[in-house]
Amino acid sequence: MPKRKDINKILIIGAGPIVIGQACEFDYSGAQACKSLKEEGYEVVLVNSNPATIMTDPDLSDKTYIEPITKEFVEQIIDIEKPDALLPTMGGQTALNVSMELAKSGILKKHQVKMIGANPDAIELAEDRQKFKDAMREIGLKCPESVIVEELEKALKVKERLKLPLVIRPSFTLGGTGGGVAYTDKEFSELCQRGLSASPTNQILIEKSVSGWKEFEMEVVRDHKDNCIIICSIENIDPMGVHTGDSITVAPSLTLTDKEYQILRNASIKVLQKIGVDTGGSNVQFAINPQNGEVNVIEMNPRVSRSSALASKATGFPIAKIAAKLAVGYSLDELKNDITKTTPASFEPTIDYVVTKIPRFTFEKFSGADSNLTTSMKSVGETMSIGRSFNESLQKGFSSLEYGLDGLDVPQINSANRKTIIDELKIQSSQRLLTIGHALRLGIKPKEINHITKYDNWFIDQLKKIINIENLVLENELTKEIILLAKQNGFTDKKIAKIRNKKENEIRKLRHQNNIRPIFRLVDTCAGEFSSKTPYLYSSYDWNFNNNPFCESNPTKNKKVIILGGGPNRIGQGIEFDYCCVHAVYALKEKGIETIMINCNPETVSTDYDTADRLYFEPLTTESVLEIYKKEEEVGEVLGIFVQFGGQTPLKIANELENEGVKILGTTTEAIDLAEDRDRFSETLKKLNIQQPKNGFAKNLKEATSIANEIGYPVLVRPSYVLGGRAMEIAYNEIHLSAFTKSALEVSSNNVILVDQYLENATEVDVDIIRDIKGETFIAGIMEHIEEAGIHSGDSACSLPPFSISTQAQNTIKEWVSKIAEEIKVVGLMNTQLAIKNQSIYVLEVNPRASRTVPFVAKSRSIPIAKIAANVMTGDLLKDILKKFNIKDLQTFNVKESVFPFNKFDGVDLVLGPEMKSTGEVMGIDDTFLSAFAKSQIACGTILPSKGKVFISIDDQNKKFILKIAKKLLELSFKIVATKGTSKFLKENNLKVETINKVKEGGPHIVDSIKKNQIDLVINTTKTQGSIRDSYSIRRTALTYNIPYYTTIPGAKIAVDTIEHLKSNSLKVKSLQDLI
């Protein structure tokens, strides 16, 4: 059947900010859907609150709304745009939940909007745990025994019947938020309470644990004619008990028999048919008992999911694009396969290689976090690798992680002997596969490892093979046969060098002398049965000396530029850098330069088969990039490599690449080093007569103490050359300094730490600029932070334009950043962070590369600044480029707010500091600063109260600043409760306040009040370690019970001003196209 003619305009709901469980895979799927539907002539309206996405670029949809994804805001958009249909399946759980609210409240019916792709009944049947279980029973499929409860009392009765261990799964949440496996009575009560709070329907499923069973996923696509195809099967290497997003997975499934595969295939299709998913992609998860083969259905997602992105990249089949076309009436046999251009989309993909996904964790950012893995997802990103064997694929995956791993290396554990490794194996840690590898090194038998970990024997045997080759490399002469064998099993040059105690380039030279180089193979969806028209490539050493290596790369004769991506998402380096890489591709394509993308992140738009002209899905290592560079150099002209757009990842290897003769485009590595080397950069600022905080460099505690005493406390302690403020702390005294110096030295790459004057209560400023080869600069944006200096810039809310900085100060800032860019000869983007205190301006640091604020500035100003930078880096001049754009003063205020993963990490405090902790961001756009701020708060889930009771507890240094805030709250008819110290201070200033106990003073105390929903807003600032410990439970309980909280005075002031503002101002939506 051809496309539907009864609909003309389609509303797509995005996924909102990047959070754990919902990352940039939904930018990939949303962008695909927008392009796919516009291609068919439909008018596309998009709503998403995340500015750091390609899908929110104004040219991707007819109307783009960067607005909060709530029922109220989406209804406003529906009222203005009057769409005929709503596609709810491209924005993860966020889009599904809001779509269901719109359907249940009658809004869709009122505005005559049809839901396409999945209907409300199907969504409810899949998402409601009890209904799903009943539906599975009706079609003869088993689910683990379970009971739905809506209150803790009933949960305790269920526990007595089902017996521990039990799995708690909240309804309608993403990434298993609020869930987990309970092994003790205490864990059970805590998980139930948390799950009930996390579920929007206050509903949890208590399920008999099947921990230790094997876990599999099937990616299925269905059309309206009931044609169903399996895109791929995915096997979790980790057994049940670990969230699939945190498990290392492989595609295709490697330990299923053909009979088992057919059972799962048929069951998957039956699930889709029963649930009633009209069209599009779905993901069905199964558990198989390894003892008797019993199959249980765990759950299904009636939408494009994280696994859909992985399956798309693993096979080359564009699930989101096809799903969008199926939603408007096409059937699978009517659509062409984009990779082969000859086969229809109804052909099931076949793959003749192994794909491995390895999650990326950032536990080091969250002191006190439990790093053990459960059914609640904790990873912030992932890497994907492709090889011709499991071992080749797995070791490439580990070397892609940005952990400093070169393959199946020794894990970072305290104990590593035969006696203690057994205890380590029992822990479900993020390093468990590395731990198994090390247990094999120490002589633990595979059978014993299987008994403890429940990992399939086949995988353990493959790891044993890697360990055997390690010994072969260590104990024998490095013949060409041994080198090739190691490379075929995924050994990097660096790993071989470490085993042999040599330098990496020595191994590379030896390998090249023996003519051992990788071949490149195509991802073609059909295992070579049909020729591929899309150059989507991976490297392999799957050849031998008896035959000529068969390489499918076929470089072109064109002029080309290689763009290095950002690797796996992690805190400090997220989707913002992928956005920049994609815009660099767009710019070069418009100039007629061929684009070659190297990246290893399956969630991104940059790794989509149709983004760059050629895609290499490879680790971002010197070895990998050099081999691709040499291959592309064989034909055509490689103009050079962009390292400026992918964050810190490409910069780390820039010097090594340059030393090997690779041309780096844009800012030179010398200039990058000048900015990164704090000593040299400090001298540069002195030369330019630009003020900076007092600072010094230390290699040990004695030197750090001496510098701190000279500067005066408080001081900022940080390592050199790190991203996202890693191990950065504010020391208020010598005791703090001692502890912080130790941790900073541990992570510093050059054993040097920086001790800077900390500017308390200063205003921080971010500036993005572009400079061309002739020295002309363009100030793209000056952003004023809402939180004071000392909160990492990636965690602070900020406003463009500034809301309180004088024109004179802004002019000085423009002059200074232009002088710095000129002095260090930046070509392309540069980000500068400054602080203003008592009218004095200080430069804090400079990053001569793309920053995480680039997408926000681009959306605020409607200027594609990453594209402009890419043009500048290939020789164009700003005076010529800027003529093409309508550059005008900002007509709106734009506020960026950060989103945090604290709900995923029990035991972690919510207090912000100089080390970055946010996973994503949202944006509020409006005519006034306070309306824009209000939208940013709603978009990140903070609903400011209009009445009620406010709890205030303020440290002594900040008490004087709370008076105006407290007075305004009372004027707005709020009641104030405070702990004794704050209460006494407020009363002394004639403000009405109720005193409440701290937790340590006994009940009834503040935490009791929060739990009883008697508090509507929390304002809590702390300075000393003691007060932070004392007030931890207040902040943590506010988070659990979804009470808005602010931990800084500036944040609290603007929040209260916003509450006042909203009393007389309503929030209206406006599309980006209407703002241009």
Short description:
This protein is α/β, with parallel strands linked by helices and 1076 residues long.
What does this structure look like?
This protein is of the alpha/beta class and 1076 residues long. 37% of the residues lie in helices and 19% in strands. The strands form 7 sheets. It has a 7-stranded antiparallel sheet, sandwiched between helices. Helix 32 (959-971) links the parallel strand 34 (949-953) and strand 35 (975-978). Helix 16 (457-475) packs antiparallel against helix 17, helix 20 packs across helix 29 (865-873) and helix 31 crosses helix 36 (1049-1064). The longest helix has 19 residues, at 457-475.
List the helices and strands and how they pair.
Layout: E1 9-13, H1 25-39, E2 43-47, E3 63-65, H2 71-81, E4 85-87, H3 92-104, H4 107-110, E5 114-115, H5 120-127, H6 129-138, E6 146-149, H7 152-162, E7 166-170, E8 180-182, H8 185-198, E9 204-208, E10 214-222, E11 228-236, E12 249-251, H9 258-275, E13 280-288, E14 295-301, H10 306-315, H11 319-327, E15 354-360, E16 381-387, H12 390-399, H13 418-425, H14 432-441, H15 446-453, H16 457-475, H17 480-488, H18 493-500, H19 504-513, E17 519-522, E18 536-540, E19 559-564, H20 575-590, E20 594-599, E21 614-617, H21 622-633, E22 637-642, H22 648-659, H23 669-676, H24 678-687, E23 695-698, H25 701-711, E24 715-719, E25 729-731, H26 734-747, E26 753-757, E27 763-771, E28 777-788, E29 798-800, H27 807-823, E30 828-837, E31 840-847, H28 854-861, H29 865-873, H30 878-881, E32 893-899, E33 920-926, H31 929-939, E34 949-953, H32 959-971, E35 975-978, H33 980-988, E36 994-995, H34 1006-1011, E37 1017-1020, H35 1025-1040, E38 1045-1046, H36 1049-1064, H37 1072-1075
Parallel strand pairs: 1-2, 1-4, 2-3, 4-5, 18-21, 19-20, 19-22, 20-21, 34-35, 34-37, 35-36, 37-38
Antiparallel strand pairs: 6-9, 7-8, 7-9, 10-11, 10-13, 11-12, 12-15, 13-14, 15-16, 17-18, 23-26, 24-25, 24-26, 27-28, 27-30, 28-29, 29-32, 30-31, 32-33
Helix pairs in contact: 1-11, 5-6, 7-8, 13-14, 14-16, 15-16, 16-17, 18-19, 20-29, 25-26, 31-36, 32-36
